[in-house]
Amino acid sequence: MGQNNSNNRLKNLLEILIISTRLGLTSFGGPTAHLGYFHEEYVRRRKWMDEKSYADLVALAQFLPGPASSQVGIGIGVMRAGVLGGIISFIGFTLPSVIALIIFALLLSSFDVGDAGWIHGLKIVAVAVVAQAILGMANKLTPDLKRKAIALFALVGTLIWQTAFTQVGVILIAAFLGFLLFKKHEKSAEANSQFPITKRVSVICLSLFFALLFLLPVIKGITGSYWIAMFDSFYRSGSLVFGGGHVVLPLLEQEFVPTGWITEEAFLAGYGATQAVPGPLFTFAAYLGAVLKGWQGGLIATAAVFLPAFLLILGALPFWDSLRNTPKIKGAIMGVNAAVVGILISAFYTPIWTSSILAPVDFALAAILFSMLAYWKLPPWIVVVTGALVGVILPLI
């Protein structure tokens, strides 16, 4: 009996690895598209979970900070084969784009980033991509005047005081405002679901999440270690991202560009290139880490930026029912989600717009690329290749 259980577990883990890797190689289009791919594969085709359980898991991932699609993938792996299944699912879905972006970063080190036309084209791709993200998020997350006001507060605050601490403060204030303004938010029908995580494991994960968040800066100050400083920056960025992968952009930019660790040109070129690969947008961290410290830095950065998402999804699963049925908690999250729209608009202006749109022809190209994404619904990799090619051609005209 024990041998059969062991064989079944190994079979499940191998199956998770194969399927998640295939999804990691083919899932283009951002987190919303990823959730569609997951639903088709795991719910409709393989029936690993029912519709209600999947909807519950998606709702939890949207509620927590971090990359929603990656957290759903981790959760599916956990429900199929325990914590190890979650780890295997994460590795399969994430590793293909991590490898591609590390290779891109290493190749990029042999070029003059500032002068290459295709690099400028990738920066303009970033303009189009973030503009589309802002419009979609604003329609969904700021539908009323109260949330528009919170977004405006976040925009003004992060533009005037451009530090990572400002963004943290804005998120906390927005949560408090949302708690006050939407505490009478209509309570939905209570729901209950079952997740295979004990509360003991959950408490350990949540304790580790907060311990790392507060202790890493202290350890960095004591040791002066470059690696710990880098891990701390990526971990903190991964811990504070509400609203989707695009929001990691301003957090990482504030961590690495003002400090001189990476140039704006290299930063935005990597962000543009990230749109051309499948998988989660958080793998942008792999590119940054590789620019800073080679392939080892890419792997460390990836582990650091995704670790909060992993700890939070495992930590929150047993408590999800009580969280989701608390209107005041929902109100706080509504405030935070409105704030991230303002934070993203701030990042859209600087550094994205100010360092990418330098002439009328740049604006024209950005408009074309935006239309390709938003109206013609072309795959992101086509938009990225077009931006890079036109970036090469324009200086020759």
TrEMBL record:
<feature type="transmembrane region" description="Helical">
    <location>
        <begin position="83"/>
        <end position="111"/>
    </location>
</feature>
<keyword id="KW-1003">Cell membrane</keyword>
<feature type="transmembrane region" description="Helical">
    <location>
        <begin position="234"/>
        <end position="252"/>
    </location>
</feature>
<dbReference type="GO" id="GO:0005886">
    <property type="term" value="C:plasma membrane"/>
</dbReference>
<feature type="transmembrane region" description="Helical">
    <location>
        <begin position="117"/>
        <end position="138"/>
    </location>
</feature>
<dbReference type="InterPro" id="IPR014047">
    <property type="entry name" value="Chr_Tranpt_l_chain"/>
</dbReference>
<feature type="transmembrane region" description="Helical">
    <location>
        <begin position="150"/>
        <end position="181"/>
    </location>
</feature>
<dbReference type="Pfam" id="PF02417">
    <property type="entry name" value="Chromate_transp"/>
</dbReference>
<feature type="transmembrane region" description="Helical">
    <location>
        <begin position="201"/>
        <end position="222"/>
    </location>
</feature>
<feature type="transmembrane region" description="Helical">
    <location>
        <begin position="381"/>
        <end position="396"/>
    </location>
</feature>
<feature type="transmembrane region" description="Helical">
    <location>
        <begin position="272"/>
        <end position="292"/>
    </location>
</feature>
<feature type="transmembrane region" description="Helical">
    <location>
        <begin position="332"/>
        <end position="350"/>
    </location>
</feature>
<keyword id="KW-1133">Transmembrane helix</keyword>
<feature type="transmembrane region" description="Helical">
    <location>
        <begin position="299"/>
        <end position="320"/>
    </location>
</feature>
<protein>
    <submittedName>
        <fullName>Chromate transporter, chromate ion transporter (CHR) family</fullName>
    </submittedName>
</protein>
<keyword id="KW-0472">Membrane</keyword>
<dbReference type="InterPro" id="IPR003370">
    <property type="entry name" value="Chromate_transpt"/>
</dbReference>
<comment type="similarity">
    <text>Belongs to the chromate ion transporter (CHR) (TC 2.A.51) family.</text>
</comment>
<keyword id="KW-0812">Transmembrane</keyword>
<dbReference type="GO" id="GO:0015109">
    <property type="term" value="F:chromate transmembrane transporter activity"/>
</dbReference>
